[in-house]
Predict the structure.
Amino acid sequence: MFQLNSGEKDQLVAKCDWLESMKHSPTNPYAFTEQGIYMLASVLKSSKAVEVNIAIIRTFKRLREFTHHYNALAKELITVDRKHEKHYRELKQALDDLVAEAQAANVAQIGFLT
């Protein structure tokens, strides 16, 4: 268990509307790590405490799964971006070459050829 600092508390209140009552509290709330929840579950024996701890553990599990999928998606987006960047550069080079050829063809010589 650890206590949030003021900045962390402000972020938490800004992101979670249901914690609005905590906004003007002079004290900072405490939070549990995932390991702290496991330890707490082994100490508390009431049925309500067990239900709450199981719900929190499932939430941490879902958060880990989300993070895994988010990281995989981020890697895929980077790969796609690099691939499209390469295609974009190739297309730009081809267009620049066509423009250069067109400009060279439009150069008309003035005067007589000798």
